[in-house]
Amino acid sequence: MHRPTPTDLRKHERIKFELRLAGSSLAKVSRSLGLAQSTVSVVSMGHGRSHRIQEAIASELGKSPHELWPKRYRAKGVTA
Fold this sequence. Notes:
The protein has helices spanning 6-21, 26-33, 37-45, 51-61, 65-68. By secondary structure, it is an all-alpha fold.
């Protein structure tokens, strides 16, 4: 399992902040996907990967997963 770095944790906090500004949250994303909030948080923190979860978070922010997690994608929309 991937241990989050300070960069991962900063990114996670930034995502939560941006979701709040957009009127959303990780809890809302988890409900829309029918998943536990902890599962969505694990992906947001960098512990795990899920294109489905990353896509849902990015969609809430009006961004692509590549914009939020550029190191996880070789090119726009292609999983690394």
